[in-house]
Amino acid sequence: MLSRHALSLVPRSRPALRTLSSAAVRYNAGLSGPKVNYEEKYAEKLQRKAQEQGKSVEQLRMELKEQERQRRLQKLKEENSKSTGTSPETPRAAKSSPDPSPAASRPTPSVSRKDSSPVKPLSSIFNLDKILQAPHTPEQISVLWRAYHESRSGGTGRGFLCASLPVETYQKMLDVASKYPRFVIPVPRENAQVEEGSKEPAYEFYLMEWGFHGSPPEPSTSGDPFAQSKPSSNPQTSTILFTPLQEYKLRTSFATPYLVVTHYTDLAKTHGLVLLRGEITPSAAASSPNVGAGEDGGRYMLSQQDAQLLAIHVQRFYLWNEGSEERAALLKAFHETPADFKWEELLKHTNFSA
């Protein structure tokens, strides 16, 4: 848990994360042993492996990072499947919803993936065939999408986030995310322990990381399994991992994300719609302190309210419109001029109670 005077970020090879204040160093003194510079320790092995594969060290490093990202997503999907009593390969049927549309019925079995994407196909959640066979408007699809997720977790909808957004809005965020794929978001903590005598509010910082997984094919009602697939004009599917910064500092790439947000673009071309799905990681130990704080009773690693707050800030910092110049400047500074990045300025744009 971090106070307003105790923010620290882990140095990385990229300028995304740097130590931001000497106060952070003092705060974390003694919490961890001497740090090992893995870049130097394994530099010779990386160089040799890169030469064997005919690649640069930077290319090899990026491939290894992407493989680790996919491993984390796959692990999270397996944990979610265990918590809901389903297997990763078995699509879950949508429960009945107030809307009588057949699109809310059991989704069609998903075809085996031909790519290495760790993202669960939209066809395993939504019955795309019914959506196309009986024409649905974007508004009707949005209602069905919300109704499906509201039916989860015994009708409470807890553990999930859902939304729909116009493809134009998503494309704007995607363009920004491709340049600036990482950022930090503070979440207020009212009951956190702070320095004695301090009247400043406390915050827990979350590292957010975008991942891009290619463009899904445009859904078709032809029913011909031998039909030649056409190049997709859909935008890329993307995921965003939210991991507590302190957790990431201690475990780096092995840290468990507390929230995974997926943007499904399958219906972008046909309906001008992108479907957002957020999955909160179930708690492995409900008795753990500060886990699933709030109304979720320890069932999840993150409360529903905090998950919604993180999702809201994605649009606040990645959707650049009139009036968002200061937030855009913070995101740029975080990557391009980290020495000029002021986390105190960040709080002005993330604290809705101020």
UniProtKB/TrEMBL annotation:
One GO process term, biological-process aspect: mitochondrial proton-transporting ATP synthase complex assembly
Region Disordered, annotated ranges: 47-120, 217-238
In what ranges is there compositional bias, type Polar residues? 229-238
**Would I find Mitochondrion among this entry's keywords?**
yes
The places in or outside the cell where this protein is found are: Mitochondrion
Keyword check for Cytoplasm: no
Per its UniProt record, what InterPro entries does this chain match? ATP11 (IPR010591)
**Could you name the domain of life of the organism this protein comes from?**
Eukaryota
Q: For bias kind Low complexity, which ranges apply?
A: 91-111
Q: Which GO terms describe its cellular component?
A: mitochondrion
Q: Where is the composition biased (Basic and acidic residues)?
A: 58-81
Q: Which UniProt keywords apply?
A: Mitochondrion, Transit peptide
Annotated family: Belongs to the ATP11 family.
Output the PANTHER family linked to this UniProt entry. Answer: ATP SYNTHASE MITOCHONDRIAL F1 COMPLEX ASSEMBLY FACTOR 1, CHAPERONE ATP11
Protein's recorded name? ATP11-domain-containing protein
Q: Which organism is it from?
A: Trametes coccinea (strain BRFM310)
